[in-house]
Automatic annotation (TrEMBL):
InterPro entries reported for this sequence: ATPase_V1-cplx_f_g_su, ATPase_V1_fsu_sf
Gene3D superfamilies (UniProt xref): ATPase, V1 complex, subunit F
Keywords tagged on the record: Ion transport, Transport
Entry similarity comment: Belongs to the V-ATPase F subunit family.
Source organism: Mariniplasma anaerobium
UniProt name for this protein: V-type ATP synthase subunit F
A Pfam family matched in the record: ATP-synt_F
Gene Ontology MF terms in the entry: proton-transporting ATPase activity, rotational mechanism
Keyword set includes Transcription: no
Amino acid sequence: MKFFLLSDNVDSLVGMRLVGIDGVIVHERKEFLLALEDALEDPSIAVILVTTKLVNLAPNVISELKLTQSRQLIVEIPDRHGGANIGEEIDRYISEAIGVKL
């Protein structure tokens, strides 16, 4: 089982490759969803890392997959475009998932 990165920038991909994590760079929503589908179909991938900017391209799709995907874990990682508000994003995600405002 391995990690796989879906990134919108070269910096994150290079950093992950330094620790042995492969990935792809995508910029548009359509190519992101295709790359995500490919990663979900690969049985050797256990954890899919997705940069914040890409998550923001399809937040509903990612939220649904996080709640229903049983084989792979999808993890949002901050990148150079942000991440300062990651705590607020986590609160929002939990609130949406359980239906209770934190």
